Amino acid sequence: MSLFDRRTVRVLFTVLLFAGVLAFLWLARKPLLIFVFSMLFAYLLEPLIRWVQPRVRNSRGLAILTVYVIGLVLLTTVGLLVGPRIVDEGRKLAHATPGLYERVTSGNIAWQFGNRWGWSRETTERVQQFLAEHREWVGQSVNYLAGRATEVAANIGWIALMPILAVFFLKDKSRFSTAAQSLLEDYRERSLLRNVIAEMDEMLAHFIRAQLYLAGISGVMYTVVLGPALRVPYGFVLGAIGGLLEFIPVVGPLVAALIILGVAITANYSHVLLVLLFLGSWRVVQDYVISPRILGGRIELHPLAAVFGVLVGGEIAGVVGVYLAIPVIATVRILWRGWHRYRLVTPTPVRDRGAA
After folding, report:
1. Cβ proximity of 319 and 148 under 8 Å
2. Does 106 share its domain with 63?
3. 160 & 57 share domain
4. Each residue of 303-333: b (16+ CB within 10 Å) or e?
């Protein structure tokens, strides 16, 4: 009798293969994520390319080139119009940040609020003591955020590859789908894969476009209200930050609100309650009026499932996990629903009860 029978060898081989795949995914996580975000970027441009293609002699390559050129021109124009203001305020905010940080961690900001709101000396001293006692925690939080920002800056080169890689997805997406279906011989399996790919294609395209619309609307609203309307210090920079963070579901808007309030408070802005009122009312309008109309019912996720997925994604993969949590959960739902339909239409073989 041999030490390992054929079944044991197959099981061990399967386990080793699975472990190897997981190890590969972990080691190659950075380029794989760039490919994923390049694909999402391609989904963002797909409707524009479909609209342009019939107008440029039905050439997909020429349509892609046209969309890229127009996008570059628009980005350059917007950058020339508002870029200098954002850069200037960003430089001033970066220069003032150490002083703002020291005022918070030392607790001296308590006297600023105490004098404005008529706090007693005892209350002000308690608030100052509380802030001073939690100086280490605040420092750790700031260092964590700075580390994340540094990590993003270090990966700018990878991020710059996204538009380039997206060209290949845009040009050959249908070929990829056909090649994947050709790997299956059974007609019902090919039909299952084709339907799943179509549903995922629609879901991802709708999700990434909806996030862009929401981010654009929020960026404009934050900039207009915080800048010319309320004249919050560094309003243009805060508006740009709010728009960018809107890309991150659930967590992004909360972080944006905290940043805006924090800067307004530490910069000694005199109408903090107006800023708080604006942030609260805009969140209600965005979440319950604008977002349902843009997202619609195509994602088909319960809000509780979305929040749970975002929390789990953030715990597993940080900011990237937070962003990809909702499309991943929606993809799993599509796969499960497709497999369930496949089982309903596929006859289950019946074993002969008399067989040994």
Report:
1. yes
2. yes
3. yes
4. eeebbebbeebbeeeebbbbbbbbbebbbeb
Which residues does 120 contact at the CB level (< 8 Å), separation at least 6? 114
Q: Which two tokens stand for residue 305?
A: 């499932």
Q: Give, rounded to a whole angstrom, the gap between the first and last alpha carbons of the chain.
A: 25
Inform me whether the pLDDT recorded for 277 exceeds 90. yes
Q: Are residues 163 and 220 in the same domain?
A: no
Phi-psi region for residue 2, left (φ > 0), alpha (ψ -120 to 50) or beta?
beta
Choose the final residue of a domain: 171, 205, 231: 171
Mean per-residue pLDDT, 234-252: 85
Residues 53-76 as b or e (16 or more Cβ within 10 Å = b)? beebeeebeebbebbbeeeeeeee
Of 25, 33, 121, nearest to 320 (Cα)?
33
Could you tell me if residue 177 is inside a domain? no
Q: Which pLDDT band, with edges at 50, 70 and 90, does 69 fall under?
A: very high
Residue 144 one-letter amino acid: Y
Contacts of 256 (CB under 8 A, 6+ apart): 222, 241, 242, 245, 246
The confidence band for 138, taking pLDDT boundaries of 50, 70 and 90, is low
* Alpha carbons 1 and 17: distance in angstroms, whole number: 26
Q: Which of 150, 171, 192 is the last residue of a domain?
A: 171
Same domain, yes or no: 199 and 87 = no
37-46, 50-59, 176-185: least confident range? 176-185
Mean pLDDT, the chain, rounded, equals 79
Task: Note the pTM of the prediction, 2 decimals.
Answer: 0.70
Helices (H), ranges, the chain: 6-27, 29-52, 60-106, 109-117, 121-133, 135-154, 156-160, 162-182, 187-224, 235-245, 251-266, 272-285, 291-295, 303-345
User: Is 93 or 233 the better-scoring residue by pLDDT?
Assistant: 233
